[in-house]
Amino acid sequence: MGIKSFQGKREINKGKIGAQILVSDYMTTNLITFKAEDSLDHVIAQLIAYKISGGPVVNDKNELIGMISEGDCIKHISDSMYYNMPMDSANTVEKNMVSEVETINKNMNVFDAATKFISSKRRR
Predict the structure, then answer these.
(1) CA 108: distance to chain centroid?
(2) More exposed terminus of the chain, fewer Cβ within 10 Å: N or C?
(3) Which residues span the domain enclosing 91?
(4) In a domain? residue 26
(5) How confident is the model at residue 82 (pLDDT cuts 50, 70, 90)?
(6) What is the percent of the chain with per-residue pLDDT over 70, rounded to a whole number?
(7) What CATH number corresponds to the domain at position 55?
């Protein structure tokens, strides 16, 4: 008695092979943003409340001017602990953010975007 396959007939992929899957199909458009004058205490509270690891810093015209991450906040906290100094509550996002930000086009293929993320070792 031979072995039988119960999988049935395979269907041929009827969709377009190699169809473009765009970044815009997967990107989040409702972002938590920060202002340059926000305090790090505010940023830390927002990161914890929304369970995010960072976010864009925008100006009054809602234009991207930088990124602030949990790593930036942790660096500030650890520096103050290392030097045995109290945390400066007047410390702002502008002093701790990364201002040189790489962006990708929303019409970029998602696989090209993934390659760019991997090669640049970026997470967001």
Answers:
(1) 16
(2) N
(3) 33-120
(4) no
(5) low
(6) 75
(7) 3.10.580.10
* Mean model confidence pLDDT for the chain: 85
Burial of 92 (C-beta count, 10 Å sphere; 0-12/13-18/19+): middle
Pairing of the two strands 64-69 and 54-58:
antiparallel
In tens, the pLDDT along 47-78 reads 999 999 999 999 999 999 999 999 999 988 88
Q: Which is nearest to 106 in space by CA: 24, 19, 21, 20? A: 24
Cβ contacts of 61 within 8 Å, gap of 6 or more:
none
Classify residue 80: in a domain, yes or no.
Answer: yes
* pTM of the predicted model as reported, rounded to 2 decimal places: 0.73
Length of the chain: 124
Helix ranges, the chain (H): 40-50, 70-82, 93-96, 110-120
The burial class, CB within 10 Å (0-12 / 13-18 / 19+), for 121 is exposed
Question: Contact 93/87 with Cβ under 8 angstroms?
Answer: no
